[in-house]
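Example (one chain per record):
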Amino acid sequence: MKATSSLVVGACAVGILGSGILFHSTGGTVQAASATSASGSLKNAQNGGLKLAAAGALSFGPGGLLIIAEPRMGSIVAVQTADTGPVQKLKQRVDKVPELIASGLGTTADNVTINDLAVNPASGLIYLSVQRKPDNAATVVTINAEGKAAALDLAPLPWVRVTLPGVTATKATNITDVACTSDRVLAAGSCNEEFASKIFSIPLPMEHGATASVFSAETYHVAHGKWETRAPISSFIPHEENGKSFVVGAFACTPVAKFPLNDLSSGAKVQGVSVVELGSGNRPLDLFEYEKDGKHWLVTHTQRFHKPLFGPSEFWGARMDMKYLDAANTNEQATRRDTKQPKGPEGIEIVDALFGAVQVAKLDNTQAVVLRDHEGALALETVALP
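Predicted structure:
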């Protein structure tokens, strides 16, 4: 799930948010890029004038398409950024990131809340969704390869907004994660209904003013020993298998489950298949997959909210072999991680590089970008994937 840690706080001045001024820690401005078209990802795109009501989970689609969740509004915004590369990776660690953002926005670090982190795979540019206290003004900030911060200038960019529905007249009350596939945008969250856990599907191109298909998700929580319908998917990835589409998601306490999406009509109920239990007392924050040495891995980055800790920080991560998605033992018989060992069963192990990371985003199959607690301050850096 894309959730704000108590370690990451902040906000921005309204005038600067509205102006789209670019900034960095030593002062100065540069020109913002503009997009001349919405390509094939947006339909009935609006030309500039976007004001974000909130800024939560972030994800990227093709051609620099930025997906932004507005969680309290129950809506998804897609912005064509024209950020298409070439790839330039972060060159060195960036220290005191909230202070860096706050200095350019004329405020203090304790008024800056960083809600999510994403990396544009087309360019390597790092994006942060930022919220301001006390009025919750929202913006997106970028950090480039040189470690310079910039408020994303939304004024010239094409965009669309889609409101997420409930199964009945109710609306989505929370959005925990978003992701883009080749033919749709997916979101996870909850509605104010008895069957609260939801998966939302929006076809590409995204059309301004349209709505989404919505499915009610039921999951077997391995640690709890029961089926649950209220707890939303905290974080997920899209997954294709034998020509079929799935959502693979993680939940609090921490089952990993997959949900089939083919041949579903809006309003349908979909039952997940829990394949691995990573340990109770954890809250998933980020989920991504990568391939290395011919093996596919699924990484779950979590926050430990029960003692004892598994390592030096409440923030930690584990990876599992993607073969578990096709395991014969599921739900009540799902494989459980050995919580007393750094590895085990086979193909499940702690990722040491994620200890202390409050936000994580995949950069490529060799590296991830992390926002980490470094000696009491938040720093942005790249880490090698095992």
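Caption: Confidence is low (pLDDT under 50) at residues 3-38.
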